[in-house]
Design a protein that fits this description.
Length: 415
Amino acid sequence: MNLDFPVGSCLDSPAHAAWLRQEGRRLLDFAKASRLPEGFGSLDAEGRLAPGASAQTLNTARMTHCFAIAHMQGEPGCLADAEHGVAALLGPLRDHEHDGWFGHPYGHNDDAKLAYLHAFVALAASSAAVAGVAGARQLLGDVVRVIEGYFWCEAQGALDESFSRTWQLPEPYRGANSNMHATEAFLALADATGDPLWLQRALRIAERIIHVHATASGYRVIEHFDASWQPLLHYNQAQPADLFRPYGTTPGHALEWARLLLHLEASLRLAGQGAPDWLLECACGLFDSACRQAWGVDGEPGFVYTLDWDNRPVVRQRLHWVHAEACATAAALWRRTAEARYQQWYQCFWAFIDKHFIDRDRGSWHHELDASNNPAGTLWPGKPDLYHAYQALLLPNLPLAPSLATAVSHYVTKR
């Protein structure tokens, strides 16, 4: 474990807090160039939109979420960007004929209805509503209705994965990734709507995917299931580097789940509901397994993207979002347990990001490194994502509950 920490010696140091805020502003400034008439698109490594670039619902939802939070922090100009995102999600990115959301404006090139995508629309709507963004309450009501009407399966206690545009052809697949982001969105929905039912739904998802399946697999997250929630361990073995459904186990998701379990535990307690002991036990187990099995496993520092079921590296690239989640999770575990080892890991992760991911010449962070920790773009070209890195800069200074946007509205002093 490398304990060289270039941005402050302690998670709670004023110098480190100031660095986090400054880096957040730098990321926001870079991301503003992604704005298009119909939402937000993907930026290349230089921070430019490609000729003829199209808005994407995933980018638009994530940017709207981030800009809404930035507005509550008092960052100039971010309210207008959040309003633009909400308007796009209510307009060209919405399927006004059959309900739900497309992946691109007016359904060009894709018309499937994806749980993963709708989870981010819910997150964006929740954050924008908390921030008082125009149109956000309408968007919030619309996405709640769609999730409850189409995706939420009460019998299974989780989301169905996807449907055809007209909601007639459900996919015979269940995914941990979409349900993980639904868990995040449900925590936000509970705060934005005031309805604690969303916390119980989040708990049911976590119990199925983590307490039942991941615990039995040595705290490795099983990503793919059939329609009856039976594991598909060899799913996508022929396409192991898929960005949303990779083969094997994804250590970054173990880290992300660990943090979400702590937020869920804290949110349940804040709402006066019972929080089972396994939430903390599984959070610690997931973090420990990811660090033990995936950090530097191939002889180079950093987390590999995926492992097979014998814990051997499959895709050795390092992705920025994994390391951003590692920082946020280590901070959350330190807040929850006060164990020094989590602060040491936090320092280690930030040192790695500072050395390898932060691009001080062209802006933002490199999104991908090769197996030797050099900037690459094989899996994830360009710099389209603000969400993971920006959250990693916010979460260390916030309590574990309420959820992110609500916590910012309560605890962050506007400047």
